[in-house]
Amino acid sequence: MGDxxxxxxxxxxxxxxxxxxxxxxxxxxxxxxxxxxxxxxxSHHQDYEPKLADEALLTRxxxxxxxxxxxxxxxxxxxxxxxxxxxxxxxxxxxxxxxxKGLSEEAINEFEEAIILDPRLSGLYQNLGLGYTAVxxxxxxxxxxxxxxxxxxxxxxYHNHLGVAYLKKEKCKKAVERFQRALDIxxxxxxxxxxxxxxxxxxxxxxxxxxxxxxxxxxxxxxLEKAAKINPNYKNEPVTRGEELLRRNDYExxxxxxxxGQRSIPRPxxxxxxxxxxxxxxxxxxxxxxxxxxxxxxxxxxIIDKHPNYADLYNHLGVAYVIMSKFxxxxxxxxxxxxxxxxxxxxxxxxxxxxxxxxHKGMQLLFDAILK
Length: 372
Fold this sequence. Notes:
Number of helices: 16
Number of strands: 4
Largest sheet: 4 strands, antiparallel
CATH topology of the largest domain: Serine Threonine Protein Phosphatase 5, Tetratricopeptide repeat
Strand order of the largest sheet: 1-2-3-4
Shape: globular
């Protein structure tokens, strides 16, 4: 089986990027890697069948490369087009799209501008905190995540992400407090359970807080077991190895094993494509058509088949159907207008157009409320 490689330089006013896509016969994957200044910032892969013919593999590799190149080019062009936007949610969507693609610095710029435009939105501080954490600016992440919690204190994910930032700073006591608060809000938050165990293990290494060390082994095991009951993926080979190291009182190596285990947990499919789609719907409607919306719906349905227990996926699918309804409604109005162009005295077409336009107004209000 052949080895196929595609390279491209992507240039924009934000900088110069390098995209490399190649197939790996060992992993049976096509891997597309994105670099800035020689540093890997994002990587995406697509599986393929081991017996795939060379010609088909070449085509698949080229198509995957062109898809990833088009995605980043479209996003960079859209960001340039909307650089002077005074809409905070527009900046937020752009920031999320950049963050999903590993362009953390670009994401941070968008979130910072969004907060200036509307400092009341707690989600902006949350997203900015994720951006700061991604680039190792933990003190700033802590500051903005605390602001997010001040604005909306009942979000378990805000507390969890703040705990992660504290843990990166090895402030284990504060990390444990935040993970516990996340679990108080949502007792079935598997990630927070696992993170709480991680913070207790790390405290066993740093010896930051004596009281956390009292009966910590039992508390660590309880949270690891709870995380695995909620999400069985939290029970894997590195985690099992970490538990054995913990029994031997080797907290440092146990922590490393648990971190490895957490990284190997399958995540729901990357939903960056959903954010890209929303941006296209809002600001690049010329390229939007029924086929594109149908493909988006099919993509979401395929992911739901694999991950049926993620509420966000159903929400994205509902939004997609609203977008399809709005598109079909617009087409209906156009057809009623054409009917009247052919026959100006066609009263039924006039009536139907008014009914469709009435529906359109209600649908537009719903559309704006969902996406803006």
